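Hey, I'm writing a tutorial for new members on how sequence and structure tokens pair up, and I'd like a real worked example in the thread rather than a made-up one. If someone can provide the structure for the chain below, I'll link this post from the tutorial.
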Amino acid sequence: MNVNKIIYKPIGMLIGVLGGVLATTAFNKVWGALGPGDEAPDATDKKATWNQVLLAATIQGAIFGVVKAAIDRAGATGYRKVTGEWPDD
């Protein structure tokens, strides 16, 4: 295994956790502005409609995907600036 991958692994994990917190916060704010309730419905929420559940899942998936890609890319770019190496090299 490449040394860069070994060194970057714990850094990447920490960045991923922070990204999850950021994505959750962003989703809650977006859902609060767009959704019919304060909290997004779970798929098994008896009172929620199909449209509400699927809309919440779509918005959440999009936000988490974008945040994960942005955080991962920023982490790899920052690692390269510090070490001069790309984490996957």
